[in-house]
Amino acid sequence: MKKFDVVIIGGGPAGMAAALGAREEGATVALLERDDRLGGILNQCIHNGFGLHYFGEELTGPEYAKRFRDKVLSDQNIHVFLEAMVLSLTEQKVVRAISPTEGLIEIQAGSVVLAMGCRERSAGAIALAGTRPAGIYTAGMAQRLCNVEGYLVGKEVVILGSGDIGLIMARRMTSEGAKVKLVAEIMPFSSGLKRNIVQCLNDYDIPLRYSTTVTRVTGKERLTGVYVAPVDEKMQPVLEQEEYIPCDTLLLSVGLIPENDLLTGTSVEMSRVTSGAVVDEYRQTSAEGIFSAGNVLHVHDLVDNVSEEAYIAGRSAAKYVKGELPFSVTVSVTPASGVRYALPQKVHTGEGKVKLYFRVDKVYRGRTVVVTSAGEVIKRKKTLVMAPGEMQNIEIDKSLIKGDVCIYTEE
Fold first, then answer.
1. What tens-digit pLDDT sequence spans the chain (411 residues)?
2. Are the C-beta atoms of 292 and 316 separated by less than 8 Å?
């Protein structure tokens, strides 16, 4: 059995940042990645817009990944295992994986960082009605086929969902000569970044229809069209207003699911809202010595925030092994009016500052974000616009925490 101070599962932007954070604290690191190269989803994201916060310049996904990959691969104390599929993780921090070059790998870790990312919801996950012809893809799969494999998946396209990948693929398909007829969003607001709506839809005159969904698809061998309809206040389609749109391709951008299957059967506490683990500000889960960061913890809209969060998790995991991770009384962080969820869900009392990340439940204008502890206000922050598609944050002083923390919005 191999032994490492820190084992990181996942070699995408979160995994690489966690590895560098752990190395800064002097730990020996094993980085397990199931693909044949590091970088994760960034390898297929050839558009720009990455790195504005982390590096202070605009990069493409592969460029952003390369900056981390070069640092990881040049560090002799980071042992990278590629094409390594992790099979199991125990609460004793034993990691088992398999790869074509190493065979069965067993590692006893001092601590573990979960950085597996997330997967897309499929047609089956949303119970899409109709036949199952060719031409129905998740937006991420279409992105890989187009940007990595070099295939144009279709010529007349409808996109269901306005997540960032769907918005970006609307622009990408248009630039490759396809006609994007419609982007339909079941919610009355977009789940993507405002800048992507402007740059990927408005600039290309691609229509975006809110409170609208695809009710069924048609076609036998190949998709021939979709029916769309508006939805009522209960999110039920109004079939009397159903409209048929001929197309040969349907892209689904209907949400992401954190890849937390490895935690099945463990005592790690999970959040019903994020589908990720419940963590403290060090990104440690309820299982001591197991940390989580990136999209496996909660879905981010900016990879810069993924890297920042994973760096914290990597450093904390290394400090845990050395017995240097500070511990004190923890209090709960609870979302209230206007806030869908907040993270971390647990905060230690003491000195220093902690940044709370949160998402609102709908679009708000001119609201104030309020943080209370034991019923007393400890921070206020005035905002201009907040939308569900954009992660918000507020920094609080831990020395002001006297009891459970609540975060909410008010007029």
1. 899 999 999 999 999 999 999 999 999 999 999 999 999 999 999 999 899 989 999 999 999 999 999 999 999 999 999 999 999 999 899 999 999 999 999 999 999 999 999 999 988 888 889 889 999 999 999 999 999 999 999 999 999 999 899 999 999 999 999 999 999 999 999 888 889 999 999 999 999 999 999 999 999 999 999 999 999 999 999 999 999 999 999 999 998 999 999 998 889 999 999 999 999 999 999 999 999 999 999 999 899 999 999 999 999 999 999 999 988 889 999 999 999 999 999 999 989 999 999 999 999 999 999 999 999 999 999 999 999 989 999 999 999 999 999 999 998
2. no
The domain made up of 328-411 has a fold known as Immunoglobulin-like (2.60.40)
pTM > 0.85: yes
Instruction: For residue 21, give the nearest of 359, 309, 336, 236 by alpha carbon.
Output: 309
CB atoms within 10 A of CB 18: 36
Q: Both tokens of residue 268?
A: 């790690």
Length of the chain: 411
CATH of 1-118+256-327, one of 3.40.109.10, 1.10.3720.10, 3.40.1190.10, 3.50.50.60: 3.50.50.60
Alpha carbons 282 and 42: distance in angstroms, whole number: 25
